[in-house]
Design goal:
There is one protein chain. The strands form 2 sheets. The chain has a 3-stranded antiparallel beta sheet. It is of the alpha+beta class and about 170 residues long. Helices cover about 60% and strands about 15% of the residues. It has helices at about 20-35, 40-45, 50-65, 75-95, 100-115, 125-130, 135-150, and strands at about 15-20, 70, 120-125, 150-160, 160-170. The radius of gyration is 25 Å and the shape is elongated. Helix 1 runs antiparallel to helix 3, helix 2 (about 40-45) runs antiparallel to helix 4 (about 75-95) and helix 3 (about 50-65) runs antiparallel to helix 4.
Length: about 170
């Protein structure tokens, strides 16, 4: 590698050690993640978890001893936890948002809106206000589908003397 002052810096790579026990744990993580690959999104994400865990474990090991790094159980566990948490988060968020068509996208939007209201659920009027991007018949069809598939519950609650329709997340 040449610089302006014509000096040359030689870099010698360092190999980080990993015991057989740690390697078996890493392979176990890889096998576990293979079982989680049930759709294209999860396959794309979980296929990289073990590799990312090893890279994070390497960073951990180098931060402990930069001259003779060794990936220990603690380093791998730390890397695996971060990598798996990130992958789970990404898959869950993708499942909530990625849709094959506009109908599925609208359905997922309605579920997210209902979930955002929490365990008490939301009133029909609140849901109508939040889903004004839908036509009335689309909203009705989506709610019917979600109720039939038991993804949401529909309940009638009395507010004073007046009955109010409530939608509650069931997932």
């Amino acid at each position: 590698m040449a610089f302006a002052d014509s000096s040359v810096i030689e870099i010698e790579p360092i190999t980080a050690r990993m015991s057989e026990e740690v390697y078996r744990e890493w392979e176990g993580l890889d096998d576990y993640c293979t079982e989680l690959m049930v759709c294209p999104i999860s396959s794309a994400v979980y296929s990289r978890v073990a590799e990312n865990a090893a890279k994070l474990a390497l960073i951990y090991a180098i931060s402990i001893d930069h001259e003779k790094p060794a990936i220990c159980n603690t380093a791998l566990a730390w890397g695996a936890e971060i990598s798996l948490w990130t992958a789970n988060n990404l898959v869950n968020r993708s499942n909530e948002r990625v849709a094959d068509n506009q109908t599925e996208s609208s359905l997922k939007s309605v579920i997210r809106i209902i979930k955002a209201f929490g365990v008490e659920g939301c009133t029909k009027s609140d849901l109508t206000k939040k889903t004004q991007f839908l036509k009335g018949f689309e909203r009705k069809d989506i709610l019917s589908s979600l109720i039939e598939s038991e993804q949401i519950l529909c309940a009638i609650k009395k507010v004073g003397k007046k009955p109010v329709t409530m939608y509650i997340n069931n997932c």
